[in-house]
């Protein structure tokens, strides 16, 4: 392999690792694995295909982890060198074409050399010609990128090998936030998933979505896009900043607290941490679901490594038909297709019907979703947020919320618990156990979080 082709391969892989745009992904994965130089470059190409096919975001961190799990020794320095050779999308297509063309010529020469050896001992001209034609057809089809039917046994064998790797390395595919309560309820968020988070107003839909976004950006190194149909960019910024600093959002308006140097240092430190996260927000108003999808796809082409989209929320879109059930169904189908097309999870927030407010038991179910049939059909996961203290001042649940798993397409649905303190979601203590229903009433030993939220918030302000 000449130095020029080797250089093109490094440019392509570096671009894929550092900024895995749709164009870079298509260009790199269109090149066969064996076209890349044996050794580290081929290992990286295999890693990119593995991560993509196993619904895991491609970032320098995930590529590094995958290479280490595959047995690569100290790949960090080599990856850094590749990332430094990344090029713009304007060059990716032409470089990929040069590598494919070189590989096709190399394969053609190899096939013809094999054919020449095969016909050396053939005295029948017709037989020799037929053999050559057969080999030429192989050259023509060797560059085909269309996959044919796959034998089920081959697929299950691959699943078995993946399962063994997970057992040995402890590494699983998909998105994990690192927040136990969220990961239990949502499971692994996979590429192509449409995840619906639904609740009545005031339950914390936006706050939960921001917690998921911030955690995934930190853990996975992905770019996230938040479409704000309800709040402004400033309101989103205030929530994330207060959450990162561990303070109530009211702190940002409390002059007395802001004059405390330690409080201000917390806020400044949090701002610096958030500044390092690739989270983008956009205020939107009066857009249709189709226009929303167009905006997201344009953004995905502009930035590399778009790994998560949050849409807040479904009920605020402008629909082009008066039939709301049909409009919502069309919207969820569009968002599901967008998630599959981009190969990322999309978190869609949704309101619940007011009817549940009239029930004695206000824990939501699938039937409480507005236009529930359409949403339930397209969503891969549906998680409800329920805070008993929202309805009952003396609730034995205190500040703990339930994340009720209404649907999970993969695996058994499991609900979980998460604390809602000072307006932010945090893991419950390890010692937490849900109240036991007894004679129609909940009873258990009192906990610290049973204190009134107003007192908890003030206490949270002064934890310094």
Mind describing the biggest β-sheet?
Answer: 9 strands, mixed
Spell the H/E element sequence.
HHHHHHHHHEHEHHHEHEHEHEHEEEEEH
Q: Order of strands across the biggest sheet?
A: 3-2-4-5-1-6-7-8-9
Relative helix content: 40-55%
Low-pLDDT sequence parts = 140-147, 438-452, 458-464
The best one-word shape is elongated
Helix segment count? 18
How would you state the average pLDDT, rounded? 79
Strand pairing plus helix content: what structural class? Answer: alpha/beta
End-to-end Cα distance, whole Å, is 62 Å
Instruction: Give the DSSP E fraction (strand runs of 2 or more residues).
Output: 5-15%
Please give the number of β-strands.
11
Q: Which value, in Å, is the CA radius of gyration?
A: 27 Å
Protein topology:
Layout: H1 3-18, H2 22-29, H3 40-53, H4 60-69, H5 76-84, H6 89-119, H7 125-141, H8 152-169, H9 180-186, E1 194-199, H10 205-220, E2 223-228, H11 233-245, H12 255-258, H13 261-275, E3 279-283, H14 289-302, E4 306-312, H15 324-342, E5 346-351, H16 372-378, E6 381-386, H17 388-391, E7 400-408, E8 416-421, E9 424-426, E10 436-438, E11 441-443, H18 453-461
Parallel strand pairs: 1-5, 1-6, 2-3, 2-4, 4-5
Antiparallel strand pairs: 6-7, 7-8, 8-9, 10-11
Helix pairs in contact: 1-2, 1-3, 1-5, 1-6, 2-6, 3-4, 6-7, 10-11, 11-13, 14-15, 15-16
């Amino acid at each position: 392999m000449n130095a020029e082709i080797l250089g093109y391969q490094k440019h392509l892989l570096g671009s894929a690792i550092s900024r895995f745009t749709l164009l870079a992904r298509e260009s790199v994965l269109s090149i066969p694995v064996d076209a890349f130089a044996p050794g580290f470059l081929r290992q990286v190409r295999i890693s990119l295909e593995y991560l993509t096919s196993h619904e895991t975001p491609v970032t320098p961190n995930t590529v590094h982890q995958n290479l280490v799990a595959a047995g690569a020794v100290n790949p960090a320095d080599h990856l850094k060198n590749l990332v430094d050779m990344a090029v713009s999308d304007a060059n990716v297509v032409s470089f990929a074409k040069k590598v494919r063309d070189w590989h096709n010529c190399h394969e053609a020469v190899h096939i013809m050399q094999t054919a020449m050896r095969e016909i050396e001992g053939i005295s029948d001209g017709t037989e020799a010609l037929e053999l050559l034609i057969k080999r030429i057809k192989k050259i023509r089809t060797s560059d085909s990128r269309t996959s044919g039917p796959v034998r089920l046994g081959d697929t299950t064998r691959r699943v078995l090998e993946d399962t063994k790797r997970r057992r040995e390395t402890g590494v699983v595919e998909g998105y994990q936030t690192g927040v136990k309560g969220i990961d239990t309820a949502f499971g692994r968020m996979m590429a192509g998933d449409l995840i619906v988070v639904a609740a009545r107003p005031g339950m914390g839909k936006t706050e939960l979505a921001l917690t998921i976004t911030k955690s995934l950006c930190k853990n996975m190194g992905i770019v996230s896009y938040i479409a704000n149909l309800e709040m402004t960019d400033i309101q989103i910024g205030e929530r994330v900043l207060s959450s990162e600093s561990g303070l109530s959002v009211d702190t940002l308006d409390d002059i007395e607290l802001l004059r405390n140097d330690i409080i201000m240092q917390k806020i400044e430190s949090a701002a610096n941490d958030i500044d390092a996260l690739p989270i983008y927000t956009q205020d939107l108003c009066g857009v249709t679901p189709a226009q929303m999808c167009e905006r997201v796809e344009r953004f995905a082409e502009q930035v590399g490594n778009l790994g998560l989209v949050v849409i807040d929320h479904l009920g605020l879109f402008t629909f082009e038909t008066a039939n709301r059930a049909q409009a919502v169904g069309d919207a969820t189908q569009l968002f599901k297709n967008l998630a599959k097309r981009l190969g990322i999870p999309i978190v869609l927030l949704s309101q619940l019907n007011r009817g549940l407010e009239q029930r004695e038991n206000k824990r939501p179910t699938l039937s409480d979703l507005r236009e529930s049939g359409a949403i339930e059909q397209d969503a891969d996961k549906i998680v409800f947020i329920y805070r008993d203290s929202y309805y009952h001042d003396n609730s034995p649940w205190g500040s703990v919320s339930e994340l009720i798993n209404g649907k999970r397409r993969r695996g058994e649905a499991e609900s979980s618990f998460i604390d809602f303190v000072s307006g932010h979601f945090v893991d419950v203590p390890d010692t937490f156990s849900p109240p036991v229903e007894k004679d129609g009433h909940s009873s258990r030993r009192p906990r610290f979080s049973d204190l009134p939220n107003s007192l908890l918030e003030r206490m949270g302000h002064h934890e310094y």
